[in-house]
Specification:
By secondary structure, the protein is mostly beta strands. The protein is built from 2 helices and 57 strands. Among the domains are: about 100 residues, no CATH class; about 100 residues, no CATH class; about 160 residues, Methylamine Dehydrogenase, Chain H, CATH 2.130.10.10; about 110 residues, no CATH class. The protein has a 5-stranded antiparallel sheet, with no helix packed on it. Strands 27-31-30-29-28 form a 5-stranded mixed sheet, with no helix packed on it. It has a 4-stranded antiparallel sheet with strand order 3-4-5-6, with no helix packed on it.
């Protein structure tokens, strides 16, 4: 196995049986319903670095360097101290379990460093599970649960909701969003509702008169409607118990502006509201210091949107005394802000750190106290090192939802942001008034959501459109681009990319967000630099779909909510494309400049234009003797024009399957082996073949996965395996210059690319 280390160090490798002759007897096997054979691949991330909201961090209290991170849509990670990189733990989840990639909470067993627990569920409308590992996340057991989770909903950085009893690792508690408090007595294998904490939604068992009132009411926003947040934090007091027995004293915080902090002194059987507590704001983090002090951070909203006020409080359980220790008060008028996180140094209990939240201008702040919040030092002079991910130079540190102090090194502090993790190695310098230095610590942690991918035959091997961080040109797939995101107009999301088939250095893109007045741009140097089109079409709202003719003379743009429009002068003037309905995506033929294609999935009709997209006509294509509607059930569909061959078109149409045309859509042939076609991409032809290699995310012979065909779909090999599924795979494309290479987008694990694993006897010397 030494060749693996030599040629593919620190990579995810699919080790599958190497077929002797891939095509041998394949047609017979497929006809008999046998699964397609497999081929070994190496899988890696295209390096961007971070890119998404890291919602939680947890150091193990007993093992130096053992650290975990959770994200809102990209699963969980373990820090590998020796390799200085994050190891993804959730790539084994397939498309059916995609909702489990949003991690609501994580928990460690203080007495057993091998155990890891994940509360998994991205949205409350989908499935949820508790994932249990006995080997630090290398493998998991799974328990389906009756309570819902929202790892990408309001309050997703609050926590931790899931907690392991430090004196008895058999016992776990979980605070849910909708269904109250839950308890397990068998290390998370089964769960029971805690009757003593059973108010509707788990809000509170009893309401008592509170202490100081904060006047601003909470506004729980998210996806256009209120979302339940429920019990956000459960914390055991280890000093109150004995090893081997249930810890009697437990605290729980609830996201409500009413009474929100509760305590149990009988191991969770009954709960009482803590007296004299502050009300009017929602707690989001609850921390118990080794000296017995309780610290809470609050916001007017659970976040990450809508927070405009906040405080930090300290509670002394022995004295029953509350102290407001807020470092910086939110203004009564103007742009308010809240507090997102609080942490205590495990070996220096009086050392406390907090972060603001939604303090957008100039950025969120970090504060440090050496006397339990009596006095604070602001880390305004922090130095941010962007070398690991140059795109972060244009992003201010924001959404600081978690702060964690290394229990074995008081100098190391980590904070999470809306785009990744920052780490400081000299935090104690702040105590002497010296600047602190922060490094973007995201090697291996890729949490972007790619929205568009292209691999042109010249120039950079990959260009990507990415949610929240615009997009990137990758000349080196293993380095975050030195120039950062696209140079030119910046969008929040780049949603579409296309290059001219016969002039691939000309590329167009469209997006939304950002400050650009026109939300589409063109590059004449392969994505190196961009300039905005002159205007937008008269209808629609940016983004949508954009394409460009083979000779780069015509751009066709279907903005979101609008119909297709064409321009032959870079947006100076737009002309409506006749014959197409609103929202129809147009694709250019890769060879003939006057030919364009479009598919209406709602009507099951294929359209073609031979006059430069001025007008489109229904080709009235037939399949198996049926008219247009015979394509199959309605659903998502993509049209792909084959490079180098005029009028060759592929249609991947969800559960209807995969269809092929060699006459510009006048007729189609269905590939009967393919049961589902989620996304199709084309790459360099195999040796001895003239047709491009095909890459399919779909289902063949009852097996869902990623497949490759070198013979126009006559035979297929599966190229991923059950340990490398990455949730939902989309936007698949091949590389026209590297045989076997495939790129695809994930729903939160960034861009993945794969290469054929070279056999030992054929490895390049």
């Amino acid at each position: 196995m030494m060749f693996l280390k030599k040629y593919f160090p620190l990579l995810a490798v699919t080790l599958l049986p190497w077929p002797g002759t891939l095509a041998a007897n394949l047609a017979a096997n497929l006809a008999a319903g046998a699964p397609p054979p497999a081929q070994a691949y190496v899988w890696r991330n295209v390096v961007i670095g971070g890119g998404g909201f890291v919602t939680g961090l947890a150091f193990h209290p007993g093992v130096p360097g053992l650290l975990y991170a959770r994200t809102d849509v990209g699963g969980a990670y373990r820090w590998e101290a020796g390799a200085q990189k994050w190891i993804p733990l959730m790539d084994w989840l397939g498309p059916a379990d995609n909702n489990l990639l949003g991690i609501e909470s994580l928990a460690l067993d203080p007495a057993d460093p091998q155990r890891l627990y994940l509360a998994a569920g991205t949205y409350s409308r989908g499935e949820a599970a508790i994932l249990r590992s006995e080997d630090q996340g290398r493998t998991f057991q799974r328990t389906a649960v009756p309570f819902k989770m929202g790892g990408n909903e309001s309050g997703r950085f609050n926590g931790e909701r899931l907690a392991v009893d430090p004196n008895n690792g058999e016992i776990l508690f979980f605070g849910s969003r909708h269904d109250g408090l839950w308890q397990s007595h068998d290390r998370g294998a089964t769960w029971q509702n805690v009757a003593g904490f059973s108010a509707p939604g788990g809000a509170q068992p009893a309401v008592v008169e509170g202490g100081p009132v904060h006047s601003r009411p909470p506004v729980r926003r998210g996806f256009g409607h209120p979302q339940a947040v429920g019990i956000v934090s459960v914390v055991f007091d280890p000093a109150s118990g004995q090893p081997g027995r249930a810890t009697p004293k437990i605290f729980a915080a609830v996201s409500t502006a009413a009474t929100n902090l509760f305590a149990s002194v009988d191991a969770g059987a009954t709960w009482q509201a803590v007296p004299d507590q502050p009300v009017g704001l929602c707690p989001n983090h609850l921390v118990l210091s080794p000296d017995g002090m309780v610290y809470l951070s609050y916001g007017s909203d659970p976040g990450p949107n809508g927070m405009n006020d906040g405080v930090v409080w300290k509670f002394d359980p022995q004295a029953g005394a509350w102290t407001d220790i807020t470092p910086l008060k939110s203004p009564d008028a103007g742009a308010g802000f809240g507090y997102g996180a609080v942490a205590v140094d495990a070996r220096h209990p009086a050392t406390v750190m907090v972060t603001t939240f939604a303090h957008w201008r100039p950025h969120d702040y970090i504060f440090r106290s050496l006397d339990g919040g009596g006095h604070w030092t602001g880390l305004e002079d922090a130095g941010w090192d962007h070398a690991n991910a140059p795109y972060t130079r244009t992003r201010t540190p924001h959404w600081m939802g978690t702060v964690a102090i290394n229990p074995f090194d008081a100098d190391q502090v980590l904070i999470t942001t809306g785009y990744g993790i920052w780490s400081c190695a000299n935090a104690t310098q702040a105590e002497a008034g010296r600047p602190t230095r922060w490094v973007f610590l995201n090697a291996g942690l890729e949490e972007t959501v790619p929205l568009a991918l292209i691999s042109p035959p010249t120039g950079a091997h990959l260009l990507s459109g990415v949610g929240d961080v615009d997009g990137f040109r990758h000349d080196d797939l293993n380095q975050s681009p030195a120039e950062g995101a696209f140079a030119g107009p910046h969008y929040g999301n780049t949603e579409t990319l296309a290059f001219a088939g016969q002039n691939p250095g000309v590329i167009v893109r469209a997006g939304t967000g950002g400050k650009a007045m026109v939300r589409a741009a063109v590059s004449h140097d392969g994505g190196g630099t961009w300039r905005a089109l002159e205007t937008e079409p008269p209808t629609g709202d940016g983004a949508g779909d954009i394409t460009i003719s083979a000779d780069a003379g015509t751009v066709v743009w279907t903005p979101r909510g609008g119909a297709p429009w064409l321009t032959t002068n870079w947006g100076t003037r737009w002309t409506a494309c006749a014959g197409l309905a609103t929202g129809i995506r147009v694709v250019a033929d890769a060879v003939e400049p006057q030919r364009f294609y479009a598919f209406d999935a709602r009507a099951g009709k294929f359209f073609a234009s031979t006059d430069g997209a001025v007008s489109f006509a229904d080709t009235e294509a037939k399949i198996a003797g049926r008219e247009n509607a015979g394509f199959g059930p309605a659903g998502g569909a993509t049209v792909t024009a084959a490079s180098g061959t005029a009028q060759e078109v592929w249609l991947a149409w969800s559960s209807a399957g995969l269809f092929h045309s060699t006459n510009g859509g006048a007729s189609f042939t269905r590939l009967t082996q393919v049961q589902e076609a989620g996304s199709l991409g084309l790459g360099k032809a195999a040796k001895g073949q003239t047709s491009p290699a095909m890459f399919l995310a779909g289902k063949i012979s009852g097996v869902a996965g990623l497949f490759r065909s070198d013979d126009v779909g006559e035979s297929w090999v599966r190229i991923n395996d059950d340990q490398h599924q990455y949730g939902y795979i989309s936007r698949v494309t091949g590389d026209p210059r590297v045989y076997g290479r495939v790129y695809f987008a994930t729903g939160g694990r960034g861009v993945i690319y794969g290469d054929i694993l070279v056999a030992p006897d054929t490895a390049e010397k």
